Amino acid sequence: MSAPIHRLTVEDxxxxxxxxxxxxxxxxxNMANIAALLFEALPDINWAGFYLFKDDQLVLGPFxxxxxxxxxxxxxxVCGTVAQQKTTLxxxxxxxxxxxxxxDAASASEIVVPILHDGNLIGVLDIDSPxxxxxxxxxxxxxxxxxxAFEKTLTx
Length: 156
What we know:
The chain is an alpha+beta fold. It has 4 helices and 6 strands; from the N terminus they run H-H-E-E-E-H-E-E-E-H. A hairpin with a 2-residue loop joins strand 1 (about 45-55) and strand 2. This is Diguanylate cyclase.
């Protein structure tokens, strides 16, 4: 019997994501599998998923976790700010973040990474935790590598 997925090391998780997305060209399928892998593998998280940039806003994409906000305007909340600035944000306490959108009151910290293709915003990868200060520089590097692996599958 194989080891449970939650025992994957950071390197194993990145390699697993790279392997899963390498042979699949469908963006939605890849996002769904990445969200599932992250949700199962990362401790102390309560939401992992994607928002896609459509019609000048973020629209809910594949995710794992509780019910989520469906649409987020650019510049609003953590996800909207990341989409507008096109830069990763690690938020140790979401309740202290100006304009935080509370999709799940249990969330206490968050990391959001932009997804870009040829410099254009595709969407964001959002991971929430019920634990304050859950995400650190190592988590940021890992999630950015995962997003990079996903970005390599995007085509025009």
